[in-house]
């Protein structure tokens, strides 16, 4: 696993040649773990001030409705910051993965433009996420009001964003597990198994 990670980090800009399934998937796992850790850190950093505010409100003897109002007002601001932090980390991790995915495609005798298309879809999903930040903040206000019909309507309007974000992952899974072509193909010799 360490050898696969070192190999990929040393070849971040190498879009030529081939990469075996095990090397690709170990590297993908490494990047997924990094993404999870980043998400957890962002959640902790964002949630801690809100929870401190709620505990302070409870100490002051504020009603449950007032505490919820404070919490929801903080949540809308947190959503904006969280989306931007997520976009930044996803852009970096996509950049770290694209060359490896291209070589993996080459190993199964597929063209590298599929990796470019996957990255483009990922960028479109990120753009839609940024564009819908205000809608998500509005959903937090609607959720506070308790109007479930309006909440469902608001959720339906941002559902496409969430679904589009899964398309790049599905492409990576499908082409990442595609069997390698035996022997030499048009992209080079069969890679060493890491």
Describe the model.
There is one protein chain. The protein is mainly alpha-helical and 194 residues long. The protein is built from six helices and no strands. It has helices at 2-10, 21-59, 64-107, 113-131, 133-145, 148-176. The radius of gyration is 22 Å and the shape is elongated. The protein starts with a helix and ends in an 18-residue tail after the last helix. The mean pLDDT is 87.
Topology as a string of helices (H) and strands (E):
HHHHHH
> What is the helix content?
over 70%
Average pLDDT across residues?
87
Number of strands: 0
Query: What coarse outline follows from CA principal-axis ratios?
Result: elongated
Number of helices: 6
Low-confidence runs (pLDDT<50, min 5 residues)?
none
Radius of gyration: 22 Å
The assigned structural class equals mainly alpha
Q: What is the first-to-last residue Cα distance? A: 8 Å
Strand content: under 5%
Largest sheet: none
Helix and strand topology:
Blueprint: H1 2-10, H2 21-59, H3 64-107, H4 113-131, H5 133-145, H6 148-176
Helix pairs in contact: 1-2, 2-3, 3-4, 3-5, 4-6, 5-6
Keywords:
0% strand, elongated, 194 residues, mainly alpha
């Amino acid at each position: 696993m360490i050898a696969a990670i070192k190999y990929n980090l040393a070849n971040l800009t190498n879009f030529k040649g081939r990469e075996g399934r095990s090397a690709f998937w170990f590297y993908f796992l490494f990047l997924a773990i990094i993404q999870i850790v980043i998400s957890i850190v962002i959640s902790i950093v964002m949630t801690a001030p809100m929870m401190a505010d709620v505990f302070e409100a409870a100490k002051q003897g504020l009603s449950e409705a007032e505490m919820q109002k404070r919490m929801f007002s903080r949540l809308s601001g947190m959503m904006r910051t969280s989306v931007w932090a997520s976009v930044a980390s996803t852009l970096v991790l996509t950049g770290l993965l694209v060359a490896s995915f291209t070589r993996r495609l080459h190993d199964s005798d597929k063209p590298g433009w599929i990796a470019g298309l996957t990255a483009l879809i990922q960028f479109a999903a990120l753009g839609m996420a940024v564009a819908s930040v205000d809608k998500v903040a509005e959903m937090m206000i609607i959720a506070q009001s308790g109007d479930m019909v309006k909440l469902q309507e608001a959720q339906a309007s941002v559902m496409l964003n969430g679904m589009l974000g899964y398309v790049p992952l599905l492409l990576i899974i499908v082409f990442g597990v595609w069997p390698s072509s035996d022997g030499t193909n048009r992209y080079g010799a069969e890679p060493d198994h890491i």
